User: Fold this.
Amino acid sequence: MENKLNEKQTTYLFGVIGLLFSFLLGFFLYPKVSKKQAIHADSILEEIKSQFREEGPIDGSWIELTKVPWKKFAYATDVYYGGISRLEENILVQYEFIADAYTGSLIDLYRV
Assistant:
C-alpha cells in the first residue's frame, strides 16, 4: 500500500513539473512566435503574377523590395508597391498595385 501511495505522489509530482515547464516554455517563446514577419516581396510578386496569368500572358512586372509604411483611415501596415504590364487587344496596358507586406494580400489594384 505504501508503494502505491509513492507512485501516486511521483506521478503527481511529474505532472506538476511538466505543467510548470510547459507554462514557462510558452511564456518565453510567445514573444518570438507572435512577432510579425514580412513576406519577401518576390513571393508576393509571384503570387500576383500567377493570378494575372489566369487571364492571359504577362509582358513585364516589377516590385519595390523596400517596405513602405501605409495608412488608410484606422488601418496601418507596411506595404510593397509594384506593377504588371500586359497586352490587351494589342495595346500595352499597365497595372500598379499595393500589397500588404505581412499577409501578401492586395490592398489596391489600378490601371495606369
